[in-house]
Design a protein that fits this description.
alpha/beta, 14 strands, 24% strand, eight-stranded mixed sheet, Rossmann fold
Length: 346
């Protein structure tokens, strides 16, 4: 069996989750890392025991490299991604795809032009509880969708931002609680509810000394005429598990921390809920999640390459959550409703 050779750009905390996931996949092997400085590269090489570079161009010359995973600061995805695509490497990028739509579109276009696959890490799409919900919605069990809500009311201690050169900054993070923390649950909301027609929002910085927002709320109107409420924060102590709430004409379901906690359909006997054990919440600790869902997404991506099949969370789908968040920021800035499709240059 052929093994895909994988390299990761970025050696921060999330890189360990990817390394653990790749290690458990039979037809994949992590062979190289690229860090932001020679010192960080040296530390990473000692930790992971594989070839580690401090220059992306040199990293891309590593023999037999098939796939590049980008785990840098969100606002630095494009530069490394463009180089990798031009070198003919398939790309799997940590969320968000990029921090604004112009940069996201450059990545999408580069991958199309170079005929390489592009995926974006939204590992919660692979939770069995989420898949159960999505399958039921697609089968019409909940009837016409009326409302979809996403709440990511988390807490981060000041050290979370103080010890990072990019978190909470507009250039590195693209914003705050919406673009960094909330986007995972917003992606699930859009996957279930469909495209957004308009949004009216208010975001603010209420607690932390950061450029981006740490608190906000939005009212969303979907193209199917359903409505929804979105909240996100890193200022709400002690941090509550994220929630996805789906309401239809015939029933409703709620995911909390990725686990089904509510499931009611008219005319059906209530069933015992056995939650997916592989989920977890970053409500107070961003590293509280395991790597099982990352492994599931990596397995899917590797097989999509080997079998030349479509990718579940490809670039254009991943762009939708960035578009929604950028529209939320614009709505708050203008203090009025903003319609989608939406585009700005950041």
């Amino acid at each position: 069996m052929r093994k895909l050779k994988i390299g990761i750009v970025g050696t921060g905390a999330i890189t360990g989750k990817h390394a653990d996931a790749i290690k458990e996949i039979e037809n994949a092997e992590l062979v190289a890392l690229c860090s932001s400085s020679p010192e960080r590269a040296r530390v990473a090489q000692e930790k992971f025991g594989i070839d580690t570079y401090a220059d992306v161009s040199a990293f891309l010359t590593h023999p037999e490299l098939d796939v590049v995973c980008i785990c840098t600061a969100s606002g630095h995805h494009m530069e490394a991604g463009l180089l990798a695509a031009e070198a003919g490497k398939h790309l799997l990028i940590e969320k968000p795809i990029e921090i604004n739509l112009a940069r996201a579109d450059q990545l999408i276009e580069a991958c199309e032009a170079n005929n390489v696959k592009l995926g974006v890490i939204f590992q919660n799409r692979f939770s069995s509880d989420y898949l159960k919900l999505k399958t039921a919605v697609q089968a019409g069990k909940f009837g016409k969708l009326l409302m979809g809500n996403a709440h990511v009311n988390w807490y981060r201690a000041p050290e979370y931002y103080n010890t990072s050169p990019w978190k909470g900054t507009l250039k590195g993070d693209g914003g705050g609680a919406f673009m960094n923390q909330g986007i995972h649950t917003f992606d699930l909301l859009l996957d279930i509810m469909g495209d957004v027609q308009s949004v009216y929002a208010k975001v603010k910085t209420s607690l932390h000394a950061i450029e981006g927002e740490d608190l906000g709320a939005a009212i969303v109107t979907f193209e199917n005429n359903a409505i929804g409420n979105i909240t996100a924060s890193t200022a709400l102590y002690p941090g509550l598990p994220e929630r996805l709430e789906i309401f239809g004409k015939n029933g409703s379901a709620v995911l909390e921390a990725g686990k089904l906690v509510q499931w009611s359909i008219q005319g059906e006997e209530s069933e015992a809920i056995v939650a997916d054990a592989h989920t977890g919440s970053g409500a107070a600790d961003p590293m509280a999640i395991g790597h099982a869902l990352h492994r599931a997404q990596w397995e899917h991506f590797v097989n999509a390459i080997l079998e030349n099949e479509s990718v579940v969370v490809e670039g254009k789908m991943a762009r939708k959550s960035v578009e929604l968040i950028r529209a939320i920021y614009k709505s708050s800035e203008l203090e009025k409703e903003v319609e989608l499709p939406f585009f700005d240059h950041g």
